[in-house]
Amino acid sequence: MSGGDPAAAEHAYPVASVDDVPEGSARRVEVEGRALALLNLDGEFYALSDACPHKGARFSMVGTQTVVGEGTHGELDPEACTVKCPYHYWEFDLETGDAVSGSKKRVPTFETTVADGQVWVRLR
Amino acid sequence: MSEPGLAEFDTDVQASAVVDADFHVEPTAEDLARYFEDDRLRRRFETHGFPEFGYLVNRTLAKNYDDPTISGIRTLGHARTGEDVREGADAIGVDTALVTLGINQLGSIQNPLVKTAVCRAFNDYALDRVTPVDDDIKLVAAIPHWDPDAAVAELERVGDEPDVVGAYGWIGPYGLFGQEAFDPLFELLTDLDLPLVLHHAADDNRFTPNAMSMRTFVEWTWVNPCTQAIQNTANMVMTGVFDAFPDLNVVYQEAGTNWLPFLAYRLDEVYADHTGDFMFVERAFEAGQEYLSRQPSEYVFDNVYTCSQVFVKPDDPKAFRQLLELSRAGDTLIYSSDFPHYTFDPPAWLSKVLPEDIREDVLHGNAEDVFRL
Q1: Distance of alpha carbon B329 from alpha carbon B366, whole angstroms
Q2: Which has the closest alpha carbon to B56: B110, B132, B114?
Q3: Which helix H or strand E contains A45, and what residues bound it?
């Protein structure tokens, strides 16, 4: 997450209000035709492509309730700054997008900025 | 945007329909106990319940599968009823769910009478509480094949129910299906036009010398069932099962897919050099049959099907295409989700990575044929 006037940044788009994504949760947003997962880890916002490079699960499902029963999908780890995929638990670093272990695959991540209660994402 | 708290799956399936050949239903022990007929067995079952999943597993092997904080065995939830099945199937983009007993560690119940009673209770429970909810929920009925006579009796009891589309058993812990003792079961299956569906047996292969030599979850859970399926298929082909029962279909679940061409061509090659054994196989000996009627590979490709989960997709597109072609995936591969386990392969994902010319067959056509939907 970076500071400055996001509106002045090239390819920056407002995607959600801060209140839309409570701490420890995720939300799918669409920007310029791209589907992103917006994650809030202890007040820090992270954005990444909303499709796991393994089998396409949506990272935005993390923390949501299972379809039936009382479990939850995937896992957010604020200490490690990682997300675990809801389908198969592949774990990715939210800063770099690199897989934490087991795979060399990478998920695209995007810079985020908060200004006036709004979360902005820069697509490049 | 999705609403917080609601899961949103990719259900953009590139096929006209999806049949899921392995959607696990997990009734609780209490759910099933009500369907036990024998009071003594019910009391026994109520006392001990199901074996805990993974209790035989060295938990350090199974990071994602039995970690209680991750609950990999119920990543997508817990389907107990028909309503749960419909909700879960809709969420992941499945039209028709073929439900199977999700208690695959059943073999860890030592007493065969209890295990057999569980199969019977599950079938009654599923036909009472699961399939009536929706026309597109069908049952692959559990059969107690550790006792071939009991398996026949159970299939005679439920096999002609309209919602029963297959007979469900386990590879690994109970011996190979080429044994003649299974002939009455095969005869009944072909009479009923039902496939034999074989799932890997979870914990139940733990205490073998080979399994005790394995050190990783990869070997034990994801390679071991494939080798068991290869061994079982070779056994069924080479003991003449498919000569005696040419219309019998066998469907493997969670046992890999790409071993079909290896086995088919391996059998052809070595059988050509070693035909002499076959006439001494019990089935052939009694029938006075000297040779197999067809090349071994023909049985493999005509009588054997594999389910997609866990589906291997090499990153190299050429290698992927070749694997599909060599496996004759358009004729032999059937989609399965393995709901609710963490190894779930979404139908939307599979539909997008498969070549267009086999997509419809894999996502629903082959299942419709084999399970006579």
Answers
A1: 10
A2: B110
A3: strand A44-49
Nearest CA in chain A to B338: A87
Asked if B188 is an interface residue toward chain A (Cβ–Cβ < 8 A), one would say: no
Among candidates A64, A69, A89 on the partner chain, residue whose Cβ is nearest the Cβ of B6: A64
Q: Write down the residue that tokens 């299939």 correspond to.
A: B155
Task: Specify the pairing of strand B19-25 against strand A34-41.
Answer: unpaired
Closest approach of chain B CAs to the CA of A105, in angstroms? 11
Q: How far is CA B133 from CA B44, B136, B138, B145, in A?
A: 30, 9, 10, 28
Q: What is the DSSP letter of A102?
A: S
Per residue in B96-125, pLDDT (tens digit) is: 999 999 888 787 778 899 999 999 999 999
CB contact under 8 A, A27 and B75: no
Please give the interface size between A and B, counted as residue pairs whose CB atoms are below 8 Å apart. Answer: 95
ipTM of the complex as predicted: 0.76
Q: CA B221, CA B231: separation in Å to the nearest integer?
A: 16
Does B99 touch chain A if contact means CB atoms closer than 8 Å?
no
Residue from B65, B66, B69, B76 whose CB has the most chain A CBs within 10 Å, to mutate: B76
3-class secondary structure per residue, chain B = CCCCCCCCCCCCCCCCCCEEEEEEECCCHHHHHCCCCCHHHHHHHHHHCCCCCCCCCCHHHCCCCCCCCCCHHHCCECCCCHHHHHHHHHHHCCCEEEEEECCCCHHHCCCHHHHHHHHHHHHHHHHHHHHHHCCCEEEEEECCCCCHHHHHHHHHHHCCCCCEEEEEEEECCCCCCCCHHHHHHHHHHHHHCCCEEEEECHHHHCCCHHHHHCCCHHHHHHHHHHHHHHHHHHHHHHCCHHHHCCCCCEEEECCCCCHHHHHHHHHHHHHHHCCCCHHHCHHHHHHCCCCCCCCHHHHHHHHEEEECCCCCCCCCHHHHHHHHHHCCHHHHEECCCCECCCCCCCHHHHHHHCCHHHHHHHHHHHHHHHCCC
Please state the rounded mean pLDDT for residues B319-339.
Answer: 97
Enter the tokens of residue B182: 């299974």
pTM of the model: 0.91
